[in-house]
Design a protein that fits this description.
The protein contains 27 helices and eight strands. The protein has 553 residues and is an alpha/beta fold. Strands 4-8-7-6-5 form a five-stranded mixed sheet, with helices on both faces. β6 (507-511) and β7 form a beta hairpin. α3 crosses α4 (75-84) and α6 (108-118) packs parallel to α7.
Length: 553
């Protein structure tokens, strides 16, 4: 049954955010930010509610006569209060607003009504689209006359001000611009459950003002880049990156270094897609990311600078631990040393066993192979990464959500922030090794998995997928795979979770004590480097692994 939210739920949520920000960040807030909070809190509750309502909606401008909220008894009074305190502005003939932005909130029919309200001579031909109708009017009438006509015909129009300040306050709370207030609603409606962390155990994401401003600037710039239409030149944004973002390079903190590197890579990639190769190369050269090194090698090879490309590939072999990147560097060098060389992953695929599947399974090839195995008397399941991730997520639940690591910053984290760092794997390594001893006793292990599953069911965990969790399948899996192999695979996963949480075989099939993990490839599919890496590791651990190449029949 869907839960109902009370009328001012969003006001309650923002008050929670303000309390958090004032508690944790008051010493580093600017005068303007502190004043924003003080002035907002001094507003009447209806005015506060209206400001939040307007800021949460997409249109830039709003018709006052169309605004109606049960919890705001008098919209006009609330608007006037917001205007007097600088939280809202009314449309005036001298506002200098883009007519395209203004007209976006009106229908084609309303544009026609507006034209007739000015004069019958401006009747818009019925064959014109809305965009053409707007052009028709703007070509014939001065901007100020059109704006006055809009106000006369449809009444007052308003838009919220200080929206950047509101977004900044939310950014402080979440530590990111990728999250917003909808997280509160999703939780309250019961659509997501998060691990409960007491308010007094939450700590601020940022340590000082420098971290805040650096990440805020980078995040905003990256959003503008993502929003830039593909057909538009990136030159202006690149100039801003050089003037606003690059100067941070010598003062980057741990909290901002990753976002900085990603901004650099994304800009270079955009130039590369625009075929501005020289600018792309120049930016990739500044990047410390392994995938930037790969892009440089690919570009240099393409433009005939192969000696430079090979030198960089050798550098990549020395500095990279990511299996996918390592495979790229190794295979690139092998290919240059011998024209007949074939990638190791390609060799594996060429040598794969073939299985004939009815062509009606085209587009759902894994299901076709499942039916093939069922026809041979096996039980067969599509498991891919999730079987292993579910096992590790349940076994290590309390290790993942260890509050002693002090890295919960807000109530909507599906894991502590430290979870995504190398330090987390290193610090938790001894405890995780000890925990894997539970695999030594099948019965005890299954009891433990059932207890954790029952106690935590539905709560977000970075590894557990509740929709795919099948304890019968888990039981069948644990009964058949050798215990030491299970432990070693889990440790291999835990050591490099950022790269090794994917690439596992598609299927798990079994019959009596016989079992196999099966990677399925359609005729035109390829084997990724991380898949090849896992296949090789499974073989080293004496775990049954098959690579099947489908042919249609």
């Amino acid at each position: 049954m869907t839960k109902e939210l009370h009328a001012t739920y969003y006001w309650d949520h923002f008050q929670y955010v303000l309390r958090y920000v004032q508690k944790h960040y008051a010493p580093i807030l600017s005068v303007e930010e502190t004043l924003f909070i003080e002035q907002y809190q001094a507003l009447s509750m209806p005015a506060q509610c209206l400001f939040l309502r307007l800021c949460s909606r997409n249109p830039t401008w709003f018709r006052v006569d169309k605004l109606s909220y049960a919890e705001i008894p008098n919209i006009v009074i609330a608007c006037n209060s917001l205007e007097q305190t600088g939280f809202l502005e009314y449309l005036r003939v001298d506002s200098g607003e883009s007519l395209g932005t203004l007209f976006s909130i009106f229908t084609r029919k309303e544009c026609g009504e507006l034209a007739l309200s000015i004069s019958p001579e401006y009747r818009i031909p019925s064959a014109l689209s809305k965009g053409e109708a707007i052009d028709f009017l703007t070509e014939r009438l001065a901007d100020k006359k059109l704006i006055q006509a809009l106000i006369d015909r449809f009444g007052s129009l308003v838009r919220p001000r200080q929206t950047d300040m509101l977004e900044f306050i939310q950014f402080l709370f979440f530590g990111s611009t990728a999250r917003d207030m909808t997280d509160f609603v999703v939780r309250d409606l019961g659509h997501r459950q998060f691990m409960e962390v007491a308010d007094d155990e939450l700590i601020p994401f940022f340590n000082d003002r420098l971290e805040v401003i650096q990440k805020w600037k980078i995040s905003r710039w990256r959003q503008e880049l993502r929003d830039l239409p593909k057909e538009d030149s990136v030159d202006d944004l690149a100039l801003r990156w050089e003037s606003d973002i690059w100067p941070m390079v010598d003062e980057l903190t741990d909290k901002t270094a990753g976002a900085f590197e990603r901004s650099l890579f994304e800009l270079a990639r955009r130039f590369e897609r625009e075929t501005n190769i020289e600018k792309a190369l120049a930016l990739y050269e500044r990047s410390l990311l392994p995938n930037a090194l790969e892009r440089r090698i690919r570009i240099l090879h393409k433009i005939g600078r192969k000696t430079e490309a090979m030198d960089l590939a050798r550098v990549g072999l020395e500095i990279t631990i990511n299996p996918q990147e390592l495979h790229f560097f190794e295979d690139y060098l092998a290919k240059q040393d011998s024209n007949s060389s074939i990638k190791r992953v390609t060799k594996s695929l060429k040598a794969a066993e073939k299985v004939a599947i009815p062509i009606e399974f085209q587009g759902k090839v894994e299901q076709g192979v499942i039916e093939h195995y069922k026809g041979l008397g096996y039980e067969a399941y599509f498991t891919e990464n999730q079987l292993w991730k579910n096992l590790i997520g349940l076994i290590a639940w309390d290790l993942i959500f260890d509050l002693n690591k002090q890295s919960f910053h807000h109530p909507f984290q599906y894991a502590p922030s430290a979870f995504h760092t190398e330090e987390f794997s290193l610090e938790s390594w001894p405890a995780f090794q000890d925990r894997l001893s539970i695999l030594d006793d099948f019965s005890s292990c299954m009891d433990y998995l059932r207890r954790v599953s029952s106690a935590q069911h539905g709560i977000l965990n970075p590894y557990v997928d509740w929709f795919s969790l099948d304890l019968y399948l888990m039981e069948s899996f644990l009964q058949r795979v050798p215990t030491e192999s299970l432990k070693n695979i889990c440790l291999h996963f835990w050591k490099n979770p950022s790269t090794h949480a994917k690439g596992f075989p598609d299927l798990f099939v079994f019959r009596d004590q016989e079992y196999a993990f099966v990677e399925v490839k359609s005729p035109n599919d390829h084997l990724s480097a991380i898949q090849h890496d896992w296949h090789q590791y499974f073989k080293e651990q004496s775990v049954e692994i098959k690579l099947l190449r489908v042919v249609w029949k």
